[in-house]
Amino acid sequence: MTEQKHLLIIDDDKELTTLLSEYLSQEGFQLSCCHDGLSGLTLARKNSYALILLDVMMPGLTGFEVLKALGGKHTTPILMLTAKGDEADRVLGLDLGADDYLAKPFQHRELLARINAILRRINIVQSQHNATPALDINHVTINPATREVFCQQQLIELTGTEYQILTLLMENVGNIVSKQTISEQVLQRKLSPFDRSIDMHVSNIRRKLAPFSDNDKLKTVRGAGYIFLSGRD
């Protein structure tokens, strides 16, 4: 029997969480729910979950404040639930360490597809740990066995999505990696028009490397994608 994946839903919409719990339970997931940010933060810190669904607007603590409190060092993937068309919320959520976002209202099947995509890519990364050699390029080192990233021998705290994007770029050092490729290989979905999630994740990587970098690591090629520089470019 396949082990059930335990999900945490943090959303003050009790009717929605009930519907999602029923639907996702039928799809083989174990669910825990809470309806305010403070309770959600407590559960997120106390227990282990395969994934967290986190609403933005809630009493007590907002979803953004929960992300800030987790400090970007969490290993559990977080899928933000944002208001439809509110790009500012999406950008801020990604900047604070969310792995992906989904705008409300959404179809249950779309949510399920996003959840499965995130869990699938995590399984891929975990299965590659022992088979993938360490990467050491331009003073950035990735240790797949521990999922640790170092820049100039200083530990860099990356979210799971940021780690996977950086790994993909370093594996293709000196070559352009398109946003479409990043979206399909990391986010496990086709790139949507006007989707800025890849830009935000790359921006976060740059920001976290910058204090320990003596040269540029990532180059943006407008309209094409991104290049991880070898240091000799």
Automatic annotation (TrEMBL):
SUPFAM superfamilies for the chain: C-terminal effector domain of the bipartite response regulators (SSF46894), CheY-like (SSF52172)
Record-annotated DNA-binding residue ranges: 132-230
Entry annotated with the keyword NAD: no
Domain OmpR/PhoB-type: 132-230
Gene Ontology MF terms in the entry: DNA binding
Annotated CDD domains: REC_OmpR_CpxR, trans_reg_C
One Pfam family cited in the UniProt record for this chain: Trans_reg_C
UniProt xrefs under InterPro entries: CheY-like_superfamily (IPR011006), CpxR-like_REC (IPR058124), OmpR/PhoB-type_DNA-bd (IPR001867), Sig_transdc_resp-reg_C-effctor (IPR016032), Sig_transdc_resp-reg_receiver (IPR001789), WalR-like (IPR039420), WH-like_DNA-bd_sf (IPR036388)
Keywords, comma-separated and alphabetical: Cytoplasm, DNA-binding, Phosphoprotein, Transcription, Transcription regulation, Two-component regulatory system
Modified residues (4-aspartylphosphate): D55
Predominant place of localization: cytoplasm
Residue ranges constituting the Response regulatory domain according to the UniProt record: 6-119
Subcellular location per the Swiss-Prot or TrEMBL entry: Cytoplasm
Name of the molecule in the record: DNA-binding response regulator
